[in-house]
Amino acid sequence: MPDSFFQRVVVPVANHDDAATTADAVVPYVENSGATVIAVHVIEKAGGAPDKASVEQREQTAEEIFDTVADGFEGVAVTLETELRYGTDVAATIIDAAHEWTASTIVFTPRGGSRWRKLLSGDVTHKLVESSDVPVLVLPDREVSDA
Amino acid sequence: MADQQQELARDLGFLEAYTIGLGTMIGAGIFVLPSIAADAAGPASMISFLIGGVVSLLAALSLSELATGMPKAGGSYYYVNRALGGFFGSIVGWGMWGGLMFASAFYMLGFGQYLTYFVPMGATGVAIAALGMAALLVAVNYYGVKETGALQNVIVIALVGLIIVFVAFGVLNVDMSTLRPFNPEGWGAVAATAGTVYVTFIGFEVIATSAEEIKNPSRNLPLSMIAAVVTPTLLYVLVMFVSTGTLSIDLLADSSIPVADVAEEFLGSVGALAMVVGAVLATVSSANASILSAARVNFAMGRDNILTNWLNEVHNRFRTPYRAILATGVFILALIASPVPIGTLAEVASFSYLVTYSLVHVSVMVMRRADPEDYDPAFQIPDVLYPVVPAVGFVASLAILAQMNTVVTLVGITIVGVGVVWYLGYARNQDIKEGLVGEAIAPEPTPATTNGGGDGYRVVVPLANPKTERDLLRFAAASAHAHEDGDAELVAVNVIEVPRQTSLEQDVAFEEERVSRQQELLDQARDIAAELDVGLRTRAIVSHDAGDAILDVVEDEDADHVVLGWRGSRTTREHVLGSTLDPVVERSSCEASLINLASETEPDRVGDVVALVGEGPNAPVTVRRAAEFAAIEDDATLALLNIQAPDADADADASPEERGRDLIERVAAEVSLDVDYDTEVVVGDDVEATALEAVDAYDTVCVGATREGAVSQTLFGSLPETLGERASGTVVMAQGASTSPQSIREAIIERLSR
C-alpha cells in the first residue's frame, strides 16, 4: 500500500532551493490524493552559545521559505500546513514534529553539501535517517537518468 | 500558535543567559588591560574597574527594563531608536557597530600578544596572528560552523575557575608595599582609566540582545544581567589588586601578557601557561560574540530602514547573515592592520558604548513618560531607584566620557558623526514613521457625519484608484439612499499593503508617497460624499494583506453591503478576480457588488440599466441593485432581461418567452419592485453570445453571482466574467448575503484545491 505513505507527509525544508526542489519532487506523488503536506522548517538554536543570526531574522527567512513551498504546491489538491520549530538538534526536532502531526512519512530530497560542510555543521540527513522511527523517504531531486 | 512558538524559541534560562554575558565580559579585557590600567593609574586602577562596574550596573538596570518591554533583536540600538527616533537611533546603531569592531580588533590584538608566550614575536607578528584569528572567526560565522552551548559553558567555567585560582593564590602573595603609592597619578587618571577599562563591561549587552530568547524574562533577564556585571567586576578588582600587589607598576606596564607574568610569580610556569590558555580562549570567545552581536545590530537597523536590508540577507545554505558578518570582519581586519595602539582600540570601543548607554538611560525615562500601549516591561526599575538610576547613570556615563583623552574623543565623535551624517544623508529619507509599518490595523478616527455604531444600512467601499473613486461612491451612495431610514452611511476604506518583510529602500520611499496618496484619496472621498449628500466615514489602514484588512472592516462595521471596483477579467491563473477581491467576495457574509466601470477616464453614466434575471439565488439581489442604480439618474430606465434556450421539445407547456416572463415577474414580486420596468426575454442557443448581444443596448448591466461549487469554475459562472471582459457598458456583479460565511479553513481548502 504505497499510497498510505503519502497520506500525511512531513516535508523538511531548510532553504529556498530545497523548498522548491522538494515541492517539485513531492507534487507528483500527492497530486489529487487528498494528502496533507506539512512543511517543517527548523530554526537551529545553539542552546546557550550565541546563535549565528537572531531568531527574528531567521523567522523572516522561514516565512519566505514557506512562501516558496506554497508556490510549489499552488494548484495541487493537497492540504498544505507549515510549521516553524526551534531546536538544537534539527533532525530530532523534525522527528518530533512528525510525531505530533502523526505523519505517515518524512519526505525530502538529497541536500548535497560536501563532507567537510557536513562534518562542521552536522549532517541532518544522516541523523534523520539514523534516528527516525517514522518512515523516511528520499525522493530523487532530478529526472531519473541513466546515472 | 504564534505565542506558543515564541515560547519555544526561548531556550535560555538564567544560567545560559548568565554564561552568555560572562563569556563576553570575561574576555580580553581582564587579560590585556592590567598593564594598560596600571600604567595609567597605578594600583588605584582597581577603583577604575569598580567605577566601570557601577556604571554598568546602572546601565544593566535600565537595559533590563527596556529589554523586557521590547524583547527585540538589536538591544540598545532598538530601544533608543524606538524611544528617541531615527537620529539617535542612527548614532547608537553606528556607535554599537563601530564599538563592536574596535572591541573585536582589541580582543584579537590581545590574543596575538598572548601568543608571544609560545612564539616570541614583535608587533608585526602579533598583528599577523590577530589577523589570522580574526579571519578564522569571520569564516566560522560566515559558514555557520556549529557551536554548542556545552562548549560555551565549558569555556566560561574554565575562565572563571582560572581567574578564581589566580585570585585565591595571588591574594596570599600580595606584597602591600608594592601597592604603594596607591594613587600615583591622581583621581583624574583613575576616572580616565575607568573609560579605558569600560570595554571589559560591554559584554552584558549581549544578554539584552538575546531578550527574545530568554525564558521567564521578567526574572531571568535582570538577574542574569546584574550577575553578569557584578561577578566580573569583583573578579576584575581582585585581579588588579593581585597584579598591582605582585609586580611593580613598571614591570606590569611593560608586560604584554600581564596576567601570565603575574601568575608566573606565585604559580610558576604552569600557572603562567594556564593563564595564557585562558587568555586565548577569552579573547576568541569575546571576539566571536562581538561579531555576531554586530550582525544583530545590522539586522535591527535594517528592520527600521536605517540601514539597507541588503546587508541582512541570510545565506541560503549557511543560514547566516553573511554579508553583515563579512562587512564587520573587513573593518576588524582593517583596524588590526592599522597602527592604532591596542589601548586606543579599547578606549574607542568604551567611548561608543558609554554614548550608547547614556542614551539608553534617557530612553528609559522617555518610554516611561510616553508609556506607549505596547510597552509593558515585565521588569521595572524599583520605585525607590527611579529616576535615580537612569539619571545618575546618564550623568556618570557623560562624566567618564569627559575624562577620556583627546585622540579617543576625536575618533569617538567621528563615529557619532558617521551616525549623524548617515541619518541626514540616508536614513532620514528612508525612515518611515513609527507605527506605520505595524502589523496591526490602525483605524483613523475621523468625525463621522452620522453616528457610527447604529443599526443603519452600512456600505463599505474599498477605494484604491482616484479615477474610479467617484463612480464607486456614487453606486454605493445609491445603495445607501435606497435604504435610507435616516442613518444609512458609507465607510470608505483604503489599504496600504506592506510586504511581510519591510524591504528595499525604494519600497520605503514609495511608502511615504502612498501615505499621502491615501490621505488625498480619502479627503476626496469625503468631498464627494458631501456632494452626494450621504454620510461617510473613512478608514485608513496599513496591512500586510488588503483582502484581509477589508474583510476585517466589513466585519468590524457590521456592514450590509460592500462595493468593490473590478477590472472585469481574471487577473492571473491563481486568482479569479484578483488577490484582494477573491477573499472578500468568498468570505464576506454581507452583500457584495463588483463594479466594472465602462470607462476609467470619463465619468460613468448609469443611463439604461438592465438586470439579467435567471434561476440563480442571486437573481433577487441583482434586481434590487439594478433598481437602486437606476434611481441615481432621473432619465435612467430599468429593464429586466431573461435568456432562454430555444425549445428542445415542441410540446412544452409554455413558450420560452412565456417562461421567461413568468420568471421575471416572480423575481420582481419577490423583491417587491415598485418602479416601472421593461421586460425582455431573449432566446438563443449560446447563452453568452446572446447575453452579450442583448446587453449591448444598455449602459449598465447587473448580473448575479453564484457561489456554488468549486470556486475556480463557478464562482460567478463564466457569464459574468465574459460580460465583465467584453461588454462595453458598466457591469455590476451582485452577490447576496451569505447565511453561512465560509470559514477561513474552508476558504483555504478551496484555494488549495484550485
Automatic annotation (TrEMBL), chain A:
Gene3D superfamilies (alphabetical): 3.40.50.12370
Domain UspA: 6-140
Family: Belongs to the universal stress protein A family.
Domain of life per record: Archaea
Name of the protein described by the UniProt record: Universal stress protein
Automatic annotation (TrEMBL), chain B:
Alphabetized Pfam families for the sequence: AA_permease_2, Usp
Keyword set includes Metal-binding: no
Superkingdom of the organism of origin: Archaea
Keywords linked to the UniProt accession: Cell membrane, Membrane, Transmembrane, Transmembrane helix
A GO molecular-function annotation: transmembrane transporter activity
Transmembrane segments: 12-37, 43-63, 84-109, 115-142, 154-174, 186-208, 220-246, 266-291, 324-342, 379-401, 407-426
Domain called UspA: residue spans: 458-590, 610-733
Membrane topology: Multi-pass membrane protein
CC annotations in GO: plasma membrane
Subcellular location(s) of the protein: Cell membrane
Keyword Transmembrane helix: yes
Organism encoding this protein: Halobacterium bonnevillei
InterPro entries named in the record: AA/rel_permease1, APC_superfamily, Rossmann-like_a/b/a_fold, UspA
Designated name of the protein: Amino acid permease
CDD domains per record: USP-like
Signal sequence extent: none
